[in-house]
Amino acid sequence: MSAEGGPAPVRAYIGLGSNLGDSIATLTAALADLAATPGILACQVSPWYRSAPVDAAGPDFINAAAALDTTLSPLELLDVLQAIELRHGRLRPYRHAPRTLDLDLLMHGDARLDTQRLTLPHPRMHERAFVLLPLRDLAPQLSLAQGNLDDLIAKRGDQAIDRLG
């Protein structure tokens, strides 16, 4: 509990991506939506990255990660993320379809969940350079169950990704 009697804030990490439309404008607007959400107390964002789609065809993605301090539960935060995706035109016509906005809850404090709706930590983040590099920008000391970020990134050398700017 916090000093005010509500839940203590936890650090959550979000993966952001877009490969349709004006991706940077969409991602910037989504970050503003997140920062304005009650229960989100702070929001930091990594630099932008351009990456080729993994396990899919389509245009390159613009990716980033965000670190949030939040009092929202994992499922409450998931609801917020999905509502923001819908507001920005997210459609799900088929698995791995190109998208205007993709917001993935990667970690929520030390939460461990494995439900039909949400698995935490995100089960494939350690396999994706477009998640690992932005995460390292925000939290270089972060370790995942599969190893530290530097070692995991070194294993993803086959994935094309470039930092923008």
UniProtKB/TrEMBL annotation:
Family, per entry: Belongs to the HPPK family.
InterPro entries listed in its UniProt record: Hppk, Hppk_sf
UniProt keyword Zinc, yes or no: no
EC number: 2.7.6.3
Annotated keywords: ATP-binding, Folate biosynthesis, Kinase, Nucleotide-binding, Transferase
High-level lineage: Bacteria, Pseudomonadati, Pseudomonadota, Betaproteobacteria, Burkholderiales
Domain of life assignment: Bacteria
Gene: folK
One GO BP annotation of this record: tetrahydrofolate biosynthetic process
Coiled-coil residue windows: none
Function recorded in the entry: Catalyzes the transfer of pyrophosphate from adenosine triphosphate (ATP) to 6-hydroxymethyl-7,8-dihydropterin, an enzymatic step in folate biosynthesis pathway.
Pathway membership: Cofactor biosynthesis; tetrahydrofolate biosynthesis; 2-amino-4-hydroxy-6-hydroxymethyl-7,8-dihydropteridine diphosphate from 7,8-dihydroneopterin triphosphate: step 4/4
Entries under Pfam families matching the protein: HPPK
The UniProt record lists the keyword ATP-binding: yes
Residue ranges constituting the 7,8-dihydro-6-hydroxymethylpterin-pyrophosphokinase domain according to the UniProt record: 95-106
Recorded GO MF terms: 2-amino-4-hydroxy-6-hydroxymethyldihydropteridine diphosphokinase activity; ATP binding; kinase activity
Name of the protein in question: 2-amino-4-hydroxy-6-hydroxymethyldihydropteridine pyrophosphokinase
Uppermost EC category: transferase
